[in-house]
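Tutorial sheet, problem 5. The two components below are modelled jointly, 804 residues in total.
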Amino acid sequence: MDSQVSNPAFWSRMQFGFTITYHYLFPQLTMGLAWFLVYWKWLALRTGDEEYHRAVRFWAKVFGLNFAVGVVTGIPMEFQFGTNWAGFSRYAGGVIGQTLAMEGMFAFFLESAFVGALIWGEKRLGPRVHFLAAVAVALGSWLSGYFILVTNAFMQHPAGYRVEADGSLGIASVGSYLLNPWAWVQFAHNQMGALVTGSFVVAALGAFYALRGIHPVQARLYLRAGTFTALIASVLVAFPTGDQQAKMIGRHQPVTLAAMEGRFTGGPMAGVAMIGQPNVAARRLDNPIEIPGALSFLAYGTFQSYVHGLEEYSEDVWPDNIELLYYAFHLMITLGTAFIVLMAFATVQNWRGRLESTPWLLWLLMLAFPFPYIANTLGWMTAELGRQPWLIYGLFRTRDGYSEVVSNGDVVFTLIGFTGLYFVLGLLFLFLVGREIGRGPDVEVIARRGEERVP
Amino acid sequence: MIALWYSIVSFMLIAYVMLDGRNFGAGMLHWLVARTPAERRQVVAAIGPLWSWHEVWLVGFGGTLVAVFPRLMASAFAGYYLALFLILWCLILRGVSLEVGGHIDDRLWQGFWDFVFVLANFLLAILFGAAAGNVARGVPLDADGRFSMAFFTDFRATGHVGLLDWYTVSIATFAVVLLAAHGATYLTLKTEGPVHDRSDACARILWAVAGPLFLAISIESWVVRPELPGQAIGNPLCWLGLLGVAVSIYLLISGLAARREARAFAGSNLLLGGLLATGGAAIFPVMLHSTLAADHSLTAYAVAASPSALLLAAIWWPVALALAVAYFVFISRRYAGKVSVARDTQGLY
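Model answer (structure tokens):
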């Protein structure tokens, strides 16, 4: 640990890891919730049913708070490429800068231009334009996700680049860069993960109101839409998207796959460890319970396929935190499986018309909403810890990417600053969202000082 | 190509200053022009629905900068490390105060967030002003094109300079006055009643103060960078920028005099744009001047991405800008006219 504390890249990694993890708590809900707003607004337009309007108005408030925190915590992310990762920007800015700029110019402009209209503008816009604003925000948020994932996919599996005369990277083929197969798979997997978060949150609030016996019509609306979407999204997260993601890792990052599964020796008929503790010092997986052959089959298609072990590679290309990587991956899988079981059961109960009369299930649904956040975070930890020790896989090491002119003290200072600021931000967010939830979707909104009554 | 990209990046920054500058200005004057809670909500409503749309231009600028001038981004952002994080934190606080303040109809709650709002906007105007001063003055770049700067050293504008010295402080002061005047002009356009009248009075005073200050910082700039006026005279773009400034002064004065608020605000925007464009054109091709040795300076040619990257960006960027302009037209039309607190406050309280 001593060597880590004095390692300049370490603190910048801590800061980036902390700020990106915190930031991504918000966009995942934005990207999931956006389609619920579109869906309900569309139903409202078609049926004219006031309940759908209420649902949109209520969730738009939650969405607005969530979006605002996403914006303010997102801006530091882009700037940290320059402030903390100047070495990386010098080396790869000519490539990744393209998608960072596209994200700003194509996606953020679209999103932020219409989010004000979506949240603040129902009275100024009229129903049709208001619906279009919801669509624009949803598209913008997914588009920005795509550009960021292209950037990340380049770091995971560089494609479409060339080395310029000065040694830095430039784009050779924009098609292979933007349509990097890794980006497609990761995008599909990640967006389904966001939809899981969004639908769990919607279902949880439905369960909360149902258990308290208030806002019954709205509660039913949220429970139905939430549990069904959650089931579809939870299945899609595992198969085909998660499955394809694992195959992609097996093909392009075999060391990472070995570390994710705690496999030190290679061989055919490789099993998937259900349980077990990687022991890096002794180079083995302690106390494993394995499904034999499953890893060979899942990663490469046959039970006889050879799966590489860590010992086949030099230690300087091993991910530098194998234990954390292993547990993050396994915990994500466990949670993902639990999501499918829970939501499948909830959907069945819903079809039988018993969802709202099964209190223990409502309790589970209400308490389940933090876990998709955890699963999404664990997924990203798997992706990013698995990429180590590379900043750009196979090309550029993390230890070469930090800003040489910035001292450790400066980075520790700003990291502490972010911790404090984000703590306050989190309290505010929870307080205000809690307040909106407490007031609920059915309140007659009374404009200030009773000047105007708005139904 | 590189000159073109230099202009595009400058344009993004100028657009950001025009758009978010009005929010900084309105924010700084928040307490002065709005006395009662209801009046303060009026100021917030004039900014509220649009602040993230304005702030995103900074993100667009940052992204474009990485794409076409990656080495400048790497040198400058790492060198300005702490100052940049202060800006980021102030932007966070500013956004939060806007979003959060209106959620609860309580004097203490709103008073607190109004305070955060005013403070963050003041700091942002000062920090951005000081940043502009640093670009004009230069930073202590070494032979590798890297630098790291203290907040202040000996307050002299040569050699191992800090973020703040007599020159950058005076530019920051000018920025505060200029942006406050811009914000006041915007509020005059967007509000009614007492807020409108006070904003109007503020705008007149602030523009009157900005004039002599501008003269002062022009002379100071000439002292700090004696070679710049010569460079500027030979550059037709500088003359274009100055022409913009001249037109804007006419628009501004005639607009204020005739109480034609839209005209005055157009003049105010054009003035900001003209000043920044003149400055940007005068320093070209140097993007970051070295106060240690002139040949350590980073020129646009030295920090640009490869020609293929520039060409690629030149293909998609105009499309993105066209879309952004379309959104801009949409928003401007939807939010044209005076704000109404009842209509523009989300119905949150």
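Marking note: The longest helix of chain A spans residues 8-47. Full credit if you identified this.
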